[in-house]
């Protein structure tokens, strides 16, 4: 098995662990919207963004700001004026995924969501409201698609993932 084919399995295991370590067990996450703080924690750990020594002593807002800055350095821009309790929307997810898979273009949010529907990453039901809040389970579901996960790791991850093929 090649290194690239192992990543989807590793990701699925990591996502399960991260759901618990991000402070929301699976049984509580069902149906609840994901916050920017949770998304920053999930993406930061997935993409191996390091926190400074003593980070466990930081407030939730301070930790979120550090993670958001680390994500921004990798090309992921979290909207919402860095408010950790703001909810993640389909538009946010579409921006991250489209930019990873296609590259940063001038596509509208609606075009990005249409692309995700056509590729089978999300249900056509999501076309209706691009600013709807997404649950933790919905986001985990999207990030558990192996080819998509590899593209996100290649676009935003540590340098060792840059040789993996985009989908």
Descriptive account of the structure:
By secondary structure, the protein is mainly α. It has one domain (3-23, 31-159). It is 54% helix and 0% strand. It contains eight helices and no strands. Helix 1 runs antiparallel to helix 3 (36-46) and helix 3 (36-46) crosses helix 4 (60-74). The longest helix is centred in the N-terminal third of the chain and has 19 residues, at 3-21. It is globular, with a radius of gyration of 15 Å. It starts with a helix and ends in an 11-residue tail after the last helix. 34% of the residues are buried. Mean pLDDT is 75; it is low at 1-29 and 162-167.
Give keywords.
8 helices; 167 residues; mainly alpha; single chain
Describe the secondary-structure layout.
Elements: H1 3-21, H2 26-29, H3 36-46, H4 60-74, H5 90-101, H6 109-118, H7 136-143, H8 146-156
Helix pairs in contact: 1-3, 1-8, 3-4, 5-6, 5-8
**Total DSSP helices:** 8
Overall number of strands: 0
Question: What is the C-alpha radius of gyration, as a whole number of Å?
Answer: 15 Å
Q: What structural class do helix, strand and pairing data support?
A: mainly alpha
The outline comes out as globular
Mean pLDDT: 75
* Quaternary assembly: single chain
**Amount of helix:** 40-55%
Show unreliable segments. Answer: 1-29, 162-167
Please report which band the strand proportion falls in: under 5%, 5-15%, 15-25%, 25-35%, 35-45% or over 45%.
under 5%
Estimate nothing, just give the exact number of structural domains.
1
- The ordered string of helix (H) and strand (E) elements is HHHHHHHH
Kindly report how far apart the N and C termini lie. Answer: 19 Å
Largest sheet: none
């Amino acid at each position: 098995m090649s290194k690239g084919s192992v990543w989807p399995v590793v990701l699925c295991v990591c996502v399960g662990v991260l759901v618990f370590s991000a402070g929301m067990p699976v049984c509580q996450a069902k149906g609840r919207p994901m916050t920017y703080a949770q998304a920053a924690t999930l993406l930061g750990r997935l993409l191996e963004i390091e926190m400074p020594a003593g980070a466990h002593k930081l407030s939730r807002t301070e930790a979120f700001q550090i993670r958001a800055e680390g994500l921004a350095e990798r090309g992921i821009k979290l909207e919402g004026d860095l408010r950790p309790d703001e909810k993640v929307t389909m538009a946010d997810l579409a921006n991250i995924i489209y930019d990873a898979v296609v590259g940063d273009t001038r596509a509208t949010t609606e075009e990005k969501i249409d692309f995700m529907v056509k590729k089978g990453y999300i249900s056509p039901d999501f076309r209706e409201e691009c600013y709807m809040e997404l649950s933790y389970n919905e986001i985990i579901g999207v990030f558990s698609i192996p080819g998509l996960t590899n593209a996100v790791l290649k676009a935003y991850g540590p340098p060792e993932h840059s040789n993996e093929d985009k989908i």
